[in-house]
Amino acid sequence: MFNEVYDVIVVGAGHAGSEAAAAAANMGSKTLLITMNLQNIAQMSCNPAMGGIAKGQIVREIDALGGYSGIVSDTSAIQFKMLNKSKGPAMWSPRVQSDRMRFAEDWRMLLEKTENLDFYQEMVSGLLVENHKVVGVKTSLGIEVKGKSVVLTNGTFLNGLIHIGDKNFGGGRAGERAATGITEQLVNLGFESGRMKTGTPPRVDGRSLDFSKMIEQPGDADPQKFSYLDITKPLTEQRSCHMSYTSELVHDLLREGFDRSPMFNGRIKSVGPRYCPSIEDKINRFADKDRHQLFVEPEGWNTCEYYINGFSTSLPEDVQFKALRSVVGFENVKFFRPGYAIEYDYFPPTQLKHTLETKLVDGLYFAGQINGTTGYEEAASQGLMAGINASLKVQEKEVFTLQRDEAYIGVLIDDLITKGTEEPYRMFTSRAEYRTLLRQDNADFRLTPKGYELGLASEKRLKRMEEKQSKSEAFVEFFRNTSVAPEEANPVLEAKKSATVKQQDKMFKLYARPNITIDDVRKFKAVSQYIDEKNLDTEVIEQTEIQVKYAGYIEKEKSNADKLNRLENLKIPTDFDYSKLKSMSIEARQKLTKIQPVTISQASRISGVNPNDISVLLVYLGR
Description:
It contains 21 helices and 23 strands.
């Protein structure tokens, strides 16, 4: 049935698998995407949204490299918001509310138009491994498909177990069976596995809700978009979300079901996401809070189905229903389906290289929730990197990795393989020490040249980025070199209650003041003329404003990154024997032996390895 040997076989077609398959195929590798149900490609299993705090930066990075998540997020968006606008630009994070069905459909259409990509619907039950090298996969029907590399993106399907109250049953998500066989084989090959938990809230009938009792949450008045390409456009109309709150009555009704809760009666033994807890976990951990926010999110343009963000639960369905009916605006609510929790297998990511290739089996890559992460965006970025590196390996080319000062994707992967994770890992801006450099607005400057070299980003995309960059740099220089007279500057400064000037001053100096905006400096004749003559768009103007106002912070962070990157160039020999270093702490020797860091810098980030241990290592390597 499958006579050819594929370059890359991708198992699973969620967010990680879709990006992996697209990347490998677009780089010229003959690719097979094999999944249990082709109708559910890029399914939004949980909330119908993309982006958010730090996650929005990741989507922009995927897009800048030539991935598809940004494009699909734009084409299927029903609302756009730039979060954290009251803070500095390092914290700005784009987010879209998505049309769930259109999101999956647009992803499938993009994949079907991708050359070098084949599809097959079947459950993969095992890997074909010879001499510690993967050579293909085996399906539940006994079909063997040969491949030079394999990317596993199994999501929550590996021995998935769904919990609703005191009921539980096997499944990868509602209505779909679990995947079996792979975990057991990997453990036999020497891999360490674990269990994690995630959950989802009820979906309800919007026709049964009273939105007049809720707080409307509209999108931005001037919406932007994710993709840097001009093939997508900002939204011209949007759908609102709404907000309501739980109450003490709701909490009391939920507590009535705690004795039947799998979280509290011992049925669920695995760890769930700390930063997205279930409603029962929230009212148990934060007993002093008399209410919690609930975001009522539409699932699409035309559907009446709504997602109740903040009410994730595995309590019995009758308890869920009774409690939710006591929320303001939900008095007559009708369920489409109850919330549930799901336990699944994962593999601690310290067993991976920076390329996401496993250390134990050559040519085998892991991406997404199999590595202990949570979130569509985290999964998609791993899929992109695994697909890229699987393709490069087959083509016998240099590996592709991203440093911590180059991308949130670099921070994510380095955190996973260096520190590991014992709970579902979620990206935050606080995890990145260079977040002033890793802004959502400059992901194209940082990564599009790299995407172009890989063959993922088109020449058109590169030219567009270079034009934006040159226009931004020229506009910054204009402000550095152009002076403004007191009689023109002072009326603007006085209106903003900013100190006036007594003589001509450079515009850069005035514009850099915290309370002076682009709207203020546009009142200077030279600025408005420059913008009109050069036909500058919003992206260029925003980029210029950030470069002017945050120049000092950006330079300082660049300097710090350069210093630390010197340690990235200090390589540690492969399979280095740390047992020789008797003056190093026992914990450090054990951790370094297990993780086998590639550089001194990576070694310094391992939990349990202190500066003295690094000094010992540097002295030994110096010999």
